[in-house]
Amino acid sequence: MNPVVVKNCRIGEGKAKIIVPIVGVTQEAILAEAATFDSIPVDVVEWRIDWYEDVFDTAKVIETAGKLQQVLGDIPVLCTFRTAKEGGEKAVEPDVYAQLLKDVAASGTVDMIDVEIFTGDEIVSDIIAAAHAAGVKVVASNHDFFKTPSQSDIVYRLRKMQDMGADIPKIAVMPTCKKDVITLLAATEEMATNFADRPIITMSMAGTGVISRLVGESLGSAMTFGAAAKASAPGQIGVKELDAVLETIHNSL
Fold this sequence. Notes:
With 253 residues, the protein is of the alpha/beta class.
């Protein structure tokens, strides 16, 4: 396993790293929330730009990203446009989505970008290449808010992300029963043990799947999401409570 190093954060080593999302609508709200992060345990901040009121004004996105980076200092910023088809706030055409991500990556104002892997192979490859050319890491992602795919399908999706050159493959699925959570965890262990040469992120959503957000270090998921002001997905728990559990598990291994 080769860790992914972003600023001072070594993803894939030691305790699972905590990502805290910012889902503010205005620049003022985004920066105000970020200013509170010096008092909470956070390894990476995910700026969910699909919530941002000016998301389709690239210059304003880049301006806000630059200010956000100034406020956060050494905390890495992951820029994510979660599309409506994968549970996000806004629909967007693939070409607009791709150009926005490439422009933000090229601006030097973010450390990582999220790319939805099923946007289309050619588009995804283009975004990943542009991000890497700008020195920006890529989290490739897939979200199913309705069900949990089979174990083999989850592993296939994660391997596809790795094969396409993403630095960190990520999948989030919705459990319909307790066994679905076991399926996700088994797929995580299989991918991490047999196929992954880089960190991966997996989670089962909602209350039923909350255990999957806690046991990553044990089974192979390198990062997890904790909520500060507002959760960005069902099942996220408070960041301070999350950190305490992660620390307990880490010290027991």
